Amino acid sequence: MKIANLKHLIALLLALLLMFSMLPAAFAEGGAAPAEETAGEAAQAEEAAPEKEAEPTRMQKLLKSAKENGGFLLVCLLVFAGLFLLAWLFERLLVKDRKSFSDTHYISYTAIFSTMAAVLMLLEFPLPFAPAFYKLDLSELPVMICTFYLGPVAGVVSEFVKVFLKLLLKGTSTAFVGDFANFAVGCTFVLPASVIYHARPSKKTALIGMIAGTVVMTVFGSAFNALYLIPKFAQLFHMELEKIVGMGTSVNSHITSVYTLVLYAVVPFNLLKGAVVSLLTFLLYKRISPLMHKGDDRKRSRKQEPGSAKT
Questions:
Q1: 95, exposed or middle or buried, with CB in 10 Å at 0-12, 13-18, 19+?
Q2: Residue 176 lies in a domain
Q3: What total number of domains does the chain contain?
Q4: What is the extent of the structural domain holding 71?
Q5: For residue 274, which of 225, 210, 227 has the smallest C-alpha distance?
Q6: Which residues contact 52 (CB under 8 A, 6 or more apart)?
């Protein structure tokens, strides 16, 4: 795809940074003093109130956490760069339906789907078979539609921007570990699905791609949880692994170790998430695809008009 290069990623990230730099007040916790309060009353209240340090805003907490975990964030950025490069190579070598979009079109649609995904990421649902810290969200749905429309690179970028926006809106409670896991596991879902679909676009390959993506996400997500994520959470929150396993045992008596926690909670969690997102994507994509491709059809018709060719 002609547009799948670094300038689109840089332009998109710069646009997001500019947008959020203009809205610092959106992240402040608390509000201004009531308008009807007089200056005298405010001064008296200030004198009477005990001196205490102002509570940091969400953005200040996020920046502090970023400074404390700078090394880990650097690793996250390197992983993103690697996945971006991998998606770019797939797009160049395997994608057969490469289209040419303008920068504005590409960035606009990627930003729209990423924002939708970030909002859906805030809506989480507990599952009866998994501990409370495993919650289902449907944030991969807009990302999957985005990657089916624009290609593998857009899917990886959308995953990254989704998590970036979520951090700005809600912050992090896991020192970025959970956020990195969401990005990495999400990419193992949307990237295989996108590559298989774009290699020969059809309903059949879309379905095969999403099934393959679900399998890859389940295998990778399970190994990632067992070998890294669960031990990292135990270290982060100064908990014994047995206590985390015990949270799973309270839900399912068959969970007695990290590996049974993965088997009885993580595996069905990822299978359920992949199945639900795949089903919704399969039902929605073809219904909204004509709306997204209207601009493509107009562009092609203008190119085919007499005298539209360059001389």
A1: buried
A2: yes
A3: 1
A4: 6-21+57-300
A5: 210
A6: none
- Mean per-residue pLDDT for 138-159? 94
User: How far apart, in whole angstroms, are the C-alpha atoms of residue 228 and residue 245?
Assistant: 15
Tokens of 78: 């390197």
Secondary structure, 3-state, the chain: CCCCCHHHHHHHHHHHHHHHHCCHHHHCCCCCCCCCCCHHHHHHHHHHCCCCCCCCCHHHHHHHHHHHCHHHHHHHHHHHHHHHHHHHHHHHHCCCCCCCCCHHHHHHHHHHHHHHHHHHHCCCEECCCCCCCCEECCCHHHHHHHHHHHCHHHHHHHHHHHHHHHHHHHCCCCCCHHHHHHHHHHHHHHHHHHHHHHHCCCHHHHHHHHHHHHHHHHHHHHHHHHHHHHHHHHHHCCCCHHHHHHHHHCCCCCCCCHHHHHHHHHHHHHHHHHHHHHHHHHHHHHHHHHHHHHHHHHHHHHHHCCCCCCC
Does the residue 30 lie in any domain? no
State how far the Cα of 114 lies from the Cα of 146, in Å rounded to an integer: 8
Residue 1 resides in a domain: no
Distance CA 121, CA 163 (A): 8
9 pLDDT tier (thresholds 50, 70, 90): low
134 vs 291, residue with greater confidence? 134
pLDDT digits (tens, 9 = 90+) for 196-205: 999 888 899 9
Structural domain contains residue 39: no
* pLDDT (tens digit per residue) in 267-276: 999 999 999 9
Q: For position 130, which CATH number holds?
A: 1.10.1760.20
Non-local (6+) Cβ contacts of 24 within 8 A are 59
Rg (C-alpha) for the chain, rounded Å, is: 23
